[in-house]
C-alpha cells in the first residue's frame, strides 16, 4: 500500500539528514513518556500472567492425571504405546501453534492499519511486529471446544480385558492351592487380603483436603527419596530446559543468525522440528511395547538416545559473524556505543534514539538510520504487492546511493535449512527418551503413589525447567547485545547482537543441558544394573528356612515309606 502524503513528513523527515533546528523540533514532538502508559503496560502484563495461570490449571487433568489414568486402566504391555500416543498428540499442539503463528505474524499487529506517519513496513523490517494476539484468540476458542468431550467421560474407565485375564493368571500362579470352598470364596472377593485392603484404602479418592495436606509431606519425602524417580526427574528437567529455551528463542536466533523473517522461522519449526519430535515420541513408545523392555533396557534406550542427541549438538560452526554496522563498536572490553563517522555527516543532527536501518549492499555496511548514512532524500518504488523505499543523496555512501531501507541480509542464509535439519534430528532423538523415562517412574514407585509422583514430577519440571530456563536463555542472549535502544531514559530493546557470541552461548546452553541429561541417564542405568544384580544374587542364594522345612518333610516321609 502506498504511504499517505499527509502523514509522511513527521517520521521520515526525522530519519533524514536535517539541520539541527528541524531535527530538534521533530524530536521534541515525538516524546511520549507518561506514568499512565507504564501503568497500562503493567495491567496488560498482569492479565497475561493470570491467563497463563488459568491455562496451567486447565492442563492438569490432561498431563499429570491423564498419564496415571491411562496407566491404571490399560494393559501393562499397552500402556507405553498409549502414553506415546498421548505425548505425540500433545506435541501436535505446539506444531500447529507454530504454523498458526507463522500465518498470524505475516499480518501487522494492527491488522487494519499500518503505523502512524505513513511508514510502510515489510515483514523483514526489524521494526515489524506481527499480530501475535490473534493466535491467542483462535487457540482459546479451540481449547474451549476441545474441553466439551471431557464432560462425557465416566467416573471410572472400564479396564481392558487383557489386563483382567493377566491379573487372574498372576493370582492363580502366585496363590497356593486351596480347597474348593476356599477357592470359591476367594473368587467372590479377590481383594479381601489385608495387603490389598491396605492398598485400596491408600488410593481411595475420599480424602478430605485437610487429610491430603497431612499425608502429602510424607508421600513427597518418600517419593523424593526414590533414587530412580529423582534421577529421571532431573534428566527430564534438563531436557525440558533445553526444549523451553529452543521453543522461546529459536525463532529469534534464526532471525538474527540467518536473516529470515519471524513468519518463516516459525514455519520451519512447525514443519520440521515438531513433526520429528512427534515421530521420536511414538518410536520410543513402540520400542518399549514391541520389545517388552524392562527397566534396565528402558534405561539403556534413554542413554543411547541422549548420547546420539548430544553428538548432534555441536552446531557452533554453522553460522557467520556480524556484518559491519557503521558507528557501532563491539571490541572486547570496550563499552558499546555510537561512534559517528566524522566528515560525511557534519551537517546532520541525527537523533540518538531513532532506528530505521538502511543497507549499503555494495560494501555490506549497515547504517542505523538514513541520517547516519548522510541521506537527504527518499524515493518510493511502487509495486503490485509491496512498495520498496530507497534513500538517495547519501554523503557517507560511495556514489551517493541509492540504499534500500532495511537491514543487510546474512551471508550464511543458505545454512538455515541444514541447521534446522540437524536441530530437528536432535529433537527427535531426545523425544525417544520421553516414554521410556515415564515408564521408569510408573513402574518404579508404589501404585498408590503413582498419581502423586507424576504430579510431583510435573511440578518440579515447571519450577526447575519451564520457569527458569527462558530467563537463563534470555539473560545469556542479552549479554551478546552490542547496541541497545533506550525508551524514556531506560534500556528497552536490543537492535544488534554479536552473532558469534550469540551462537556460541545459545548452542552452548543447549549442549550443557543435554550433557546433564546424559549424566542422569548414565547414573540411572548404573543403579538399575546394580539392583538387577542384587536381585539375581538373592535368587541364587538358597533360603535356610526353606531348606529346614524341606528336610523336616522328608524326615516325616521316611517312616511312612518304611511301613509300606
From TrEMBL:
GO cellular component: plasma membrane
Region (Disordered): 172-197, 538-564
Listed InterPro entries: Kazal_dom, MFS_trans_sf, OATP
Assigned keywords, A-Z: Cell membrane, Disulfide bond, Ion transport, Membrane, Transmembrane, Transmembrane helix, Transport
Transmembrane segments: 81-109, 129-153, 228-250, 262-288, 300-319, 415-442, 463-486, 506-528
Biased composition (Basic and acidic residues): 554-564
Primary localization: membrane
Domain Kazal-like, first and last residues per copy: 338-398
Family from the record: Belongs to the organo anion transporter (TC 2.A.60) family.
Name of the molecule in the record: Solute carrier organic anion transporter family member
Organism encoding this protein: Bos taurus
Amino acid at each position: 500500500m502506498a504511504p499517505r502524503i499527509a502523514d509522511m513528513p513527521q517520521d521520515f523527515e526525522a530519519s533524514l539528514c536535517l539541520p539541527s533546528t528541524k531535527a530538534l523540533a521533530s524530536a521534541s514532538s515525538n516524546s511520549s513518556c507518561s506514568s499512565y502508559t507504564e501503568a497500562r503496560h503493567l495491567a496488560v502484563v498482569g492479565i497475561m500472567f493470570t491467563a497463563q495461570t488459568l491455562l496451567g490449571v486447565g492442563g492438569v487433568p490432561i498431563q499429570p492425571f491423564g498419564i496415571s489414568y491411562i496407566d491404571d486402566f490399560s494393559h501393562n504391555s499397552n500402556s507405553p504405546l498409549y502414553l506415546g500416543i498421548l505425548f505425540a498428540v500433545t506435541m501436535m499442539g505446539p506444531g500447529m501453534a507454530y504454523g498458526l503463528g507463522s500465518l498470524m505474524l505475516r499480518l501487522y499487529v494492527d491488522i487494519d492499519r499500518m503505523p502512524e506517519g505513513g511508514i510502510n513496513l515489510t515483514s523483514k523490517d526489524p521494526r515489524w511486529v506481527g499480530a501475535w494476539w490473534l493466535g491467542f484468540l483462535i487457540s482459546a476458542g479451540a481449547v474451549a471446544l476441545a474441553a466439551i468431550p471431557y464432560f462425557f467421560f465416566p467416573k471410572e474407565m472400564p479396564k481392558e480385558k487383557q489386563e483382567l485375564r493377566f491379573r487372574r493368571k498372576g493370582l492363580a500362579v502366585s496363590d497356593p492351592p486351596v480347597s474348593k470352598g476356599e477357592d470359591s470364596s476367594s473368587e467372590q472377593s479377590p481383594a479381601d487380603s489385608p495387603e490389598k485392603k491396605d492398598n485400596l484404602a491408600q488410593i481411595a479418592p475420599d480424602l478430605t483436603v485437610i487429610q491430603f495436606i497431612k499425608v502429602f509431606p510424607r508421600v513427597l519425602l518418600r517419593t523424593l527419596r526414590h533414587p530412580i524417580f529423582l534421577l529421571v526427574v532431573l534428566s527430564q528437567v534438563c531436557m525440558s530446559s533445553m526444549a523451553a529455551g529452543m521453543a522461546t528463542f529459536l525463532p529469534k536466533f534464526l532471525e538474527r543468525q540467518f536473516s529470515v523473517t519471524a513468519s518463516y522461522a516459525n514455519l520451519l519449526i512447525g514443519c520440521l522440528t515438531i513433526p520429528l519430535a512427534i515421530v521420536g515420541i511414538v518410536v520410543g513408545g513402540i520400542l518399549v511395547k514391541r520389545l517388552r523392555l524392562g527397566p534396565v533396557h528402558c534405561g539403556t534406550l534413554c542413554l543411547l538416545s541422549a548420547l546420539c542427541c548430544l553428538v548432534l549438538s555441536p552446531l557452533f560452526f554453522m553460522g557467520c559473524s556480524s556484518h559491519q554496522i557503521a558507528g557501532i563498536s563491539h571490541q572486547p572490553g570496550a563499552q558499546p556505543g555510537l561512534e559517528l563517522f566524522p566528515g560525511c555527516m557534519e551537517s546532520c543532527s541525527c537523533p540518538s534514539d531513532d532506528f530505521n536501518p538502511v543497507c549499503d549492499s555494495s560494501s555490506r555496511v549497515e547504517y542505523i538510520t538514513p541520517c547516519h548514512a548522510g541521506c537527504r532524500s527518499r524515493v518510493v518504488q511502487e509495486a503490485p504487492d509491496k512498495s520498496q523505499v530507497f534513500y538517495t543523496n547519501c554523503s557517507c555512501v560511495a556514489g551517493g546511493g541509492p540504499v534500500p531501507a532495511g537491514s543487510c541480509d546474512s551471508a550464511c542464509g543458505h545454512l538455515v535449512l541444514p541447521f534446522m535439519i540437524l536441530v530437528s534430528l536432535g529433537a527427535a532423538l531426545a523425544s525417544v527418551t520421553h516414554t521410556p523415562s515415564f515408564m521408569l517412574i510408573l513402574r518404579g514407585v508404589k501404585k498408590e503413589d503413582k498419581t502423586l509422583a507424576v504430579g510431583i514430577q510435573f511440578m518440579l519440571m515447571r519450577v526447575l525447567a519451564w520457569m527458569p530456563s527462558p530467563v537463563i536463555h534470555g539473560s545469556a542472549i542479552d549479554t551478546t547485545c552490542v547496541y541497545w535502544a533506550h525508551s524514556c531514559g531506560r534500556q528497552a530493546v536490543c537492535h544488534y547482537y554479536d552473532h558469534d557470541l550469540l551462537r556460541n552461548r545459545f548452542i552452548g546452553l543447549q549442549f550443557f543441558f543435554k550433557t546433564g541429561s546424559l549424566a542422569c541417564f548414565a547414573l540411572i542405568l548404573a543403579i538399575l544394573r546394580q539392583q538387577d544384580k542384587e536381585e539375581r544374587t538373592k535368587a541364587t542364594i538358597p533360603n535356610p528356612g526353606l531348606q529346614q522345612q524341606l528336610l523336616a518333610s522328608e524326615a516325616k516321609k521316611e517312616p511312612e515309606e518304611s511301613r509300606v
